[in-house]
Amino acid sequence: MEKTIENALDDISLIKAVIEKTQKDFAKVAMFFIGIGLVNGIAWIMEQLAYYIRNTAGYGNWLVQALGQGTHLLRFAGYIVLFVCFYKRIKATNNEISEGMIKIWGIVLIGSYVLSFLYMRLLPNGNDDKLITLWRCKELIEVLPVIFALFMTGILTKKLTITVCTAIYSIMYFVLFVGMKEIPYGTFGGTGTLMPLSSTSVKCLMILGMIVLGIYLKIGARIHGDKLNT
To answer: What is the pTM of this model?
Structure first.
């Protein structure tokens, strides 16, 4: 009888150790999401600076083109660096859940960016209604995989909050996308341009949304670890 109880206690300790290790690995993954938010935040600042120069010095200024191209390059290179660095760290922990999560996000971020780039290169020049519609579809190539990855993150981490928030954003995004409402954007130093509300929501998701997600996972891992130690 005593041996059975001892074995049961050992099993419970093992389960607690596995759960605690998984939560600690989620804390490492949390920094990956914060990194995504920071990369997109820096890219947004560069984009706003490009609009400011365009509004004040003219579209022909070489800095406008340089910052525009630099924004795309920063995001693409940033995604690759984040994926490689965090995948190596998570791989060393032998946590298949966290490793799978990093793989999903790496494929989504890098893959969708490459597809979006190729899509834009294949579009013909012009400004008619059909081409404008095709240009707007580029946004779907970027955001739909992200929504899928967010749902998978909620499932893998077993965080209902992530799944519910993703569902709410998905509905809100498609309402904005279909509504085709536009707001002024890049107005520092001038009139700027018009941008669809759906595109603005994607920028907010990739900056604020990713940072909040990372902080949420980090706090959740810390709280869960404290509970296990009590």
So the answer is: 0.82
**Residues 212, 215: Cα–Cα separation, whole Å:** 5
Give CA–CA dist 187/48, Å, rounded. 8
CB neighbours of residue 70 within 10 Å:
16
Kindly tell me if the per-residue pLDDT of 14 is higher than 50. Answer: no
Domain locations along the chain? 2-228
Give me the phi and psi of 182, to 5 degrees please: -125, 150
Q: How many CB atoms lie within 10 A of CB 80?
A: 14
Alpha-helical runs (H) found in the chain? 2-57, 62-91, 96-122, 129-157, 160-179, 197-204, 210-228
Give the sign of the dihedral formed by CA 218, CA 32, CA 154, CA 14: negative
Q: How far apart are CA 223 and CA 219, in angstroms?
A: 6
Retrieve residue 7's tokens: 């074995």
22 pLDDT higher than 70: no
Would you say 98 and 28 are in contact if contact means Cβ atoms under 8 Å apart?
yes
Helix orientation angle between 210-228 and 2-57, rounded to the nearest 10 degrees: 160
Residues 44/199, Cβ–Cβ less than 8 Å: no
Question: Any idea what DSSP says for residue 191?
Answer: -
Whole-angstrom distance, CA of residue 23 vs CA of residue 16: 11
